[in-house]
Amino acid sequence: MARKIVNRKALREEVEAAEAAEKAGLSEKPAAPKKAVKRASRAKEPADLRKKVYWGVFNQSLKRVATFEFNQKKEAEKKAEALSQSGKTPHFVQKVKETLDA
């Protein structure tokens, strides 16, 4: 890799000349105020929705047959057992989370 030889004295003179021109330019004419740039707003993430847990009675094809409140698990199990004995397919109980509408 070849290095480019840089004359630091020449670079320094260019920088000083630019600074002097900038100072001279400021004394002649006041700087124009900069316009405020509007920043693109970021969309807030939606807050978590409130959910409620139920006991669901499902058949073998995962179709919900009945829904019970969370504190009624025994009733849900009884319903699943009764449906399993009366029908051909077995039924089971599983938790179901549903969002609450505000």
Written description of the protein model:
- A three-stranded antiparallel beta sheet has the order 2-1-3.
- It starts with 7 loop residues before the first helix and ends with a strand.
- The mean pLDDT is about 85.
- With about 100 residues, it is an alpha+beta fold.
- The longest helix is centred in the first third of the chain and has 21 residues, at about 10-30.
- The chain has a domain at about 50-100.
- A hairpin with a 5-residue loop joins strand 1 (about 50-60) and strand 2.
- It has helices at about 10-30, 75-85, and strands at about 50-60, 65-70, 90-100.
- The chain contains two helices and three strands, in the order αββαβ.
- It is rod-shaped and about 100 Å long.
Separation of the first and last Cα atoms:
68 Å
The tally of strands reads 3
Give the number of helices: 2
How much of the polypeptide forms β-strand, as a percent range? Answer: 15-25%
Q: Which sequence of strands runs across the widest sheet? A: 2-1-3
